[in-house]
Amino acid sequence: MNGQAAAGNHPVDADRIWADLMDLAAITDPGRPYTRRSFSPRFLEGRAWLADRFRAAGLETRIDPAGNLIGRLEGTEPEAGTIALGSHSDTVPDGGRFDGTAGVLVALGIARTIVGQGIRLRHSLEIIDCLAEEVSEFGLSCIGSRGLAGALTPQSLDLRKPDGESLREAIARVGGDPDRIAVVARDDIRAWLELHIEQGRVLEEAGVDLGIVTSVVGITRVEIEVSGMADHAGTTPMHLRHDALVAAAGMVAEVRRLALRRIEAGGGYFVATTGELTVTPNAANVVPGKVRLLVEARGEAPDSIKVFLGELAQGTRRIAEASGVTLSSYRLLSEAPPTPFDPGLVSTLEAAASRNGVSFVRLPSGAGHDAVFFSRIAPTAMIFVPSRAGRSHCPEEWTDKQELALGALVQFDAILELDRSG
Amino acid sequence: MNGQAAAGNHPVDADRIWADLMDLAAITDPGRPYTRRSFSPRFLEGRAWLADRFRAAGLETRIDPAGNLIGRLEGTEPEAGTIALGSHSDTVPDGGRFDGTAGVLVALGIARTIVGQGIRLRHSLEIIDCLAEEVSEFGLSCIGSRGLAGALTPQSLDLRKPDGESLREAIARVGGDPDRIAVVARDDIRAWLELHIEQGRVLEEAGVDLGIVTSVVGITRVEIEVSGMADHAGTTPMHLRHDALVAAAGMVAEVRRLALRRIEAGGGYFVATTGELTVTPNAANVVPGKVRLLVEARGEAPDSIKVFLGELAQGTRRIAEASGVTLSSYRLLSEAPPTPFDPGLVSTLEAAASRNGVSFVRLPSGAGHDAVFFSRIAPTAMIFVPSRAGRSHCPEEWTDKQELALGALVQFDAILELDRSG
């Protein structure tokens, strides 16, 4: 925390937000830290608690067709549309206390301030707890925001959990109306503002209060299967080997080398990772016969991912040939383009930060968020608050109360400005 | 097959050896190719079949205290001692038809020839089916040959299978006498000759009939744990990463580089392998936080392994430092020195091969065998027959009948020579 805002009296009550965060975190699967998996009994318990809080704050509370929990304050000019803010209340297994909930509960704190101070907004204000942002048991993430944006396909609704329940049935069970999802893509939202923890170390390293998020990176995943020959590790001389792991190790190094080359070439944020590597047969006395790698590239610029993919295909082919192995499979598993956020909304957030003496950097989000789907139907931007040591999706996840307070302050101020000018 | 022996009439009946091999292979766990795990009902069924064959060949058949099945032909000069030959009849799961059984059934074929031709040897002759050569459910290999050589410790006898049975109990169950193992280390054996499939491609590449084995390599295993930081693969810029897999990949390459350096430096056969590599958490969107590697080095010369281990320790430390990760564990798991075979016996085998026009190369064995333990109590040597494409421990394991015939011929001739001169 660096800005002069640290010393000031904030309109948004951070102590109350903090108490809410700890109360919601206490609703967790027995004996596990911070687990409210979407669609589970514990998730519904958290939602019931949240709905009570929404109502207690004076918000008109409902569940929309896609299963999102929404608290609404009607504006003075209904035709002005809606300013929406929030995030999600579901967690990964053994997750943290801030991912998603920070955005929902800061938004609730802001709504309380607006009601408490008797502020009458022209726009309606909605606090949205998006359904199932984390990858759910259906193998899908961002279910509520997809639904709200008209991006939930009938095929998706037919997905089934391991226990046999379909997504359609599950959405109905949590209070949604799956048959109406297709017809209710929202067209009234004038802005989606999502506050979220960074889940990285960029803000901490930069020593700033906040991040103003300019885009969400594109994400591409490639699956590579390297096939050599599973020979006896004692009886096969080095020159007769077709070692799939030696080749795969070269590819892991290549992935990093090519990522660094993209960064040197400019074009903004770029990362590439070999996150999964599985060896077969994986025995001490057998030369590895097969290796499966999962390579992920994320970048701000669509071009940088494209160039990387071309170089990766070439590099892995070259390494396979030199190592006497084959690429028995090479598949593009998924390809999501970058999502640039609304420049006007980004400027509004920056101006609000500057007005309040809150230090910040612009940065792209390396992780996906509900904001990606909101951006299809409305001007969208995000605020990141720092994550201690970058930890996330684990019990050690942490953001200071004062950091949340500054994020709340900037978001609150931006909303007032949007309401005046929008 | 290259030598002039191919055209000759062999004293040892290869058709009968082949028929025995196929008969024994047919005794396998239902629905699985070639599985007779030591101590299992199927193993005992195979042994019962073998004991019948031994008796039918005129051998005095018994099980020794260590659980080895032995068929014996008494010699004319009891004080001359015993020439022993054989291998093992247990298999790995889903193994082949030749590993171990080839040595036992060629030996049986030789005994049949000796009996059939009315040859009276001065030495006693024993055909030994060593108990549990493959790594058993007790986690131990070469149980019978260890026992016979006085190398089975009381601690080993207390090892237990997953079902709770101790090795002591299991040896008694298969007909051994565990309490007598310690007192019966054999001192009467004048030679142990083991024929085995090569389990590699050296003979095939060299285009020769046989391998005469000069030693068994030393085997050393090192477990390395690389610890970095399991960061979000999207939100953690490349320069802030501590990627355990990138570091481990460098170590995999280093293992190969250092092995090639040992070979260039001379000092005989040397191989090194990273056979196991396990990534944690192994998820597409997480920078690998931990990697466990198992590195194995095998070499003919004790010095070459020692130098390799020194360079490996240095190389991995250097890579860890350069990659911003730590070696959270670095353990020597096991260390078995090379076993040189008896030079006189090796010469006897070479002379027998030359006399019969059988082409051969000298080579070290990259794999362990019962012969390692026999070499502690008797002059020992081995014959390798070729393995098609080096395949072993799998249903595709294959050696031609004619190749077995040449191995049998050389072993038979060497025995007659040993009996004359020994």
Structural account:
Two copies of one chain form a homodimer. Helices cover 35% and strands 23% of the residues of chain A. Chain A has 422 residues and is of the alpha/beta class. In chain A, helix 8 runs antiparallel to helix 9 (302-323) and helix 10 packs across helix 12 (401-421). The longest helix of chain A has 22 residues, at 302-323. The radius of gyration of chain A is 24 Å and the shape is globular. The interface between A and B is large, with 58 and 58 residues.
Terminal residue distance of chain A = 30 Å
CATH superfamily of the largest domain in chain A: Zn peptidases
Average pLDDT score of chain A: 95
Radius of gyration of chain A over alpha carbons? 24 Å
Net shape of chain A? globular
User: What do we call the CATH topology of the largest domain in chain A?
Assistant: Aminopeptidase
What is this structure, in a nutshell?
With 422 residues, the first copy, chain A, is of the alpha/beta class.
List keywords for this structure.
homodimer; 422 residues; alpha/beta; Aminopeptidase; Alpha-Beta Plaits; 2 domains; nine-stranded mixed β-sheet; four-stranded antiparallel β-sheet; disordered N terminus
